[in-house]
Amino acid sequence: VQQQLMELLARAKADIESCPNLNELVNVKAKYLGKKSLLIQLYSRLKELPADERPAFGQSVNQAREQIEALISLKEGSLRQSSWQTATNNLLDLSLPGYKPARGGLHPLTLVMREIEDVFMSMGFEIAEGFDIEDEFHNFDALNTPADHPSRNLADTFYLKDGNLLRTQTSTVQVRVMENYPPPLRIISPGRCYRNDKADASHSPVFHQVEALVVDEGISLADMKDTLQNFAQIMFGRKVRTRIRPHFFPFTEPSAEMDMSCVMCDGRGCKVCKQTGWLELGGAGMVDPNVFDILNIDSEKYTGFAFGLGIDRIAMMKYNIPDLRILYENDLRVLRQFR
Amino acid sequence: MQISLDWLKDYLRLNEKSDDLTKLLTFSGIEVEDVRIYGAIPETIITAKVIESVLMEGSDHLQICQVDTGTEILQVVCGAPNCTPGIIGVLALPGTKLGDIVIKQTQIRGTESSGMLCSELELGLSEDHGGIIILPGDTPLGVSFKELLKLPDTLFELEITPNRSDLLGYLGIATDLAANTGSELLTPTVNDVSTLEDETNSIEKFLTLDNKEPQLCPRYTARVFRGVKVSESPLWLRLRLVKSGLRPINNIVDITNYIMLETGHPLHAFDYDKLEKQQGKPYIIIRRAEAKESFAALDGKNYLLSESDLVIADSKKAIAIAGVIGGTNSHITETTINIVLEAACFNHSSVRKTSFAHKIITDSAYRFERHLASDTAEFASARAAQLICKLAGGILCKGMLDDWQTQSNGLIVPLRPNRLKQVIGIKLTKIQISHYLTKLGLVYLGEGCYKKFYPDSVEKIPKLVKDHAESLYFEVEPEDNLHMREIELIEEALYFEIPPKRVDLTREIDLIEEVIRLYGMDNVPQKVKPSLIMDRRSFRLKRQIAGFLVDNGFQEIVNLSFTDPDLVHKLEPAADDIRLKQMSLLNPQNSNLSVMRTTLVPQLILNAQYNLNHGIKLLKLFELNKVFLENNTLPKSEPLRLSILWSGLNIENHWKFKPQQCDFFQLKGIIEDLLELSGLSGLDYSDIVSGYLICGESQSILCNGIRIAEYGRLKPSIAAQYGIDTIELKQAVWIADIDLERLITLADSHEYTYQPAPKYPSVERDISFLIRDGIAYSNIQERIRKANQASILHVCLIDEYAGKQVPEGFRSLTFRIVFNHPEKTLTDDEVESVFVSIVNDLKSQWDIQLR
């Protein structure tokens, strides 16, 4: 029997050593230690032996089993090591490009619009939406625009054949909001506007605007300057400065135009800002008491400010786009730059 | 902290405003975390006297008792060791329900028994099961035990915020409630304590105090009692402790705990005779522990103290860790005769440090570390003296040793009514303000002015000055006169003196908080700022949908709102199609821009044509924008649309993963996923689509019968009209048009609802069927899914095959079925039987064979 065990051990050792991989090792293990293995058969012969030989026999079979087990676990360890070592020996050209699921992209106008919305929402503004097709009341009358004001001309405003018009500014939304909600109000209204301008590098008959409106007790021009400065700095960086200068709009009094320091040259003067150091952002002002009166809001109790920003213009400034028309061309070679 | 309503009522005559005590407490800043009913015991449990008891034959503990209920004599078998003739116990009459058990008229080992004498545990009053309840000898017989004990009681679990050390006892809670409701506060009096004292035995004869650490122990008081009898506390006292979450021990310890619960001020009692004597009497020394001083505490543990721990000691040994825990060397035992009662105040941060360092959490440490006032020590000591004399007998030595070196004057804090308005938003009158604060025990000193110098970075507590007219006058001393501008603001202010127990009130703003707490935060009017203008759901959904498309490779396009009127005609719509009713401009710039668009599709096809002409073959485009539909009145109909165009390969060229031409199912998947993310449900599919799509390669989706999307392959003839030659390009153009406006209206708010992950393992089975052409996959899938709803988790298609192996007119579909039961692991047999039923069902329904 000892002889048999020695041979078995030798065979097992050879098999284990020559075992090439982990899968094969499982088979080897079954062969020498499994239910039908020689070792187990030897155990069953224990009963046939005289009682005094049994302990010695049992002991030697056990020893053999332990040795085989030790060899297998040793081999298993070294195979696990080498399984990944061999992988590194396969020559992979790791410089080959990876597989990227192709991303699409939003239109630059949407990107800018969303950024503006997010900035204002973080400042506690709500977003209000209105209609592109409006009547003269909401676009002009309620905004304190005289009946003979030149902006009502066909050369400036698009009219539909049914007498309605395409809004020339998103201020129409502030009218609709004030008609329906009492102050305090804190809204922005982003959207499309239409003006009868011939398309050129800086004009388009369709363009986008965002209008901000704040109405509450004790709102002053100082609040407007604060909001404007905050907006500009969040949007364009902390270095940006803003200023307002007197201007005229029918629906604000006092009215102003807003500038910010040129983002290209930090206000030192360059081609983009035409050497002025300033870029025009849009119109602004304190809501004219007449507008409140028309909309039945107590103009003694409430004050408010409003300002409008051109989204197309901001997109051009932000992305250095030289011609407004590029935004409406939808050339994928351009749009894909904004992915 | 757990409090009993019954006990609370000792200190408070509750009025009608106190009905909803839970709400009242919570809204005055004392949050009620739980409310429980305690001792809901039946009426049929009465007091009864054991007049005779005989040990039952053959038993070593069962006694046959004759019990007097006042009206009759009943025979009751009782096994309790403390059941002896003469005691008055609590008898549950036959028929009484105790939990799930009904007490019956029964025979115990052949002896008639008419009821049960009860222990505290049996009645659910405490954990005590050492014997039956024994009531005082003067208790009337035959009365309802429930009424005798004023049960049931209500227990409140309160969250006391760490700043409110004044609320750590019943009296504090009662004071706050009284201030809140206007109920009458019933503070116990201690005037009679001196009458209890033994004039002949002055405390100085028995004890000396030596406070070596007045910083860490601002006050230490001690009383001595001689000849007390330590025993079990009476039932009412024990139950009150139990109801407040404490375990009764013996009458002396119970009384110290009782008074701690009443006043919020922890007490401790020492066994006088265990203290080391010096010149005939013990010294109580308050000192820092020595380094590595060992102390055997009452929790059974040994602590190695350090010099940062404060101890109470006699001349030889530490007898307590100050304010934290007592020691085994001096605690009250049944043999104790003479006691020292400690009522002291220890520095909160010192107690906290010690409690933290040694991880000892006790009711005493919990209170001291929240900063108690020194003042209450005296009252607590007197209250305990009253109770000890009453319940444990003994002689109270005359006087109380009191070491109180750092007695301070009451703090004075001004409150400006204007400042209050600034903080809480409403103006309260001076009368209101002083009314609320005096109810909390603050003393109103009067009006004065409040001077504030600018600049003054820190608002300092002003100093009380009396001017020549004897009126109160406070000012803040400037730190640096040179830099103080000559501007001073004089404001009207009310001055209050803070009671010592309110250690949390030191500044004006603290007083403002108290006023608003009593005024009611609920009563502060809300500033109206509606935020309801914005449609947040629609806003979010639009962004989500656009984001989804971008993530899937689509590029957003923006086209003008007006367009060429002929463009839509090229889609060959039916004559009554709403898209043909375009609104015209009165003053268009040119005919190409003369009408408002009614669909986004034509411009999108033109965008494709433009880009194809520029050599871009893989097109994945979408536009999300308004269209304009004819409507006679304002506002016009300006619904949102989403149009998608896909042409060319399904993915970009890649060296390893080869692209294919995109097809119907890829587009369909995008649309389905998009609707799914919108939370749309109840969808139906239809083959009816607009004329520009190829029938048979296009589909529409309806939600509740309303068409919300159509998608499919653009007819080559129509593509050609827009200048795209699909034949020459060898690629199809796929279009989807979605009524986003309707989708947003129909979309659920799409809130996620948690479903537990399957508890038991799933079993997957694949199965192939031979299916005659014309039978739709969706019908079969649905049928399988519904075959056994409880155990089928998921059914999906993993292969479709038609070819050599499959007869003409048939195809093979392979389904993967995932079995999972929510309540058990499915056995092979169970899975097999569902499997067989599916096969049989499909066979009988459509004559579908297994492949």
What does this structure look like?
The complex is a heterodimer of chains A (339) and B (851). In chain A, 35% of the residues are buried. Chain A is an alpha+beta fold and 339 residues long. Helix content of chain A is 40%, strand content 19%. The mean pLDDT of chain A is 88. Chain A has helices spanning 2-18, 22-33, 38-44, 54-89, 108-122, 136-139, 171-180, 221-236, 289-294, 311-319, 332-335, and strands at 126-127, 133-134, 165-166, 185-194, 206-216, 242-249, 252-261, 278-287, 303-310. A seven-stranded mixed β-sheet of chain B has the order 34-37-38-42-41-40-39, sandwiched between helices. In chain B, strands 15, 17, 18, 26, 27 and 28 form a six-stranded mixed β-sheet that branches. Chain B is elongated and about 125 Å long. The two termini of chain B are 71 Å apart. By secondary structure, chain B is an alpha+beta fold. In chain B, helix 6 crosses helix 7, helix 7 (251-263) packs antiparallel against helix 10 (376-392) and helix 20 (777-787) crosses helix 21. Mean pLDDT of chain B is 89; it is low at 453-462, 467-471 and 481-487.
Jot down its keywords:
heterodimer, A: 339 residues, 7-stranded mixed beta sheet, two-stranded antiparallel sheet, B: 851 residues, alpha+beta, 6-stranded mixed beta sheet, 29% strand
Q: Assign the structural class of chain A, choosing from mainly alpha, mainly beta, alpha/beta, alpha+beta, or little secondary structure.
A: alpha+beta
Shape field of chain A: rod-shaped
How many beta-strand elements of chain B? 46
Poorly predicted tracts of residues of chain B: 453-462, 467-471, 481-487
Given the structure, what is the number of helices of chain B? 21
Side by side, the strands of the main sheet of chain A go 1-4-5-9-8-7-6
Query: What portion of residues of chain A belong to β-strands?
Result: 15-25%
Helix content of chain A: 40-55%
Q: How many strand segments of chain A?
A: 9
What is the count of DSSP helices of chain A, taking H or I runs of 4+ residues? 11
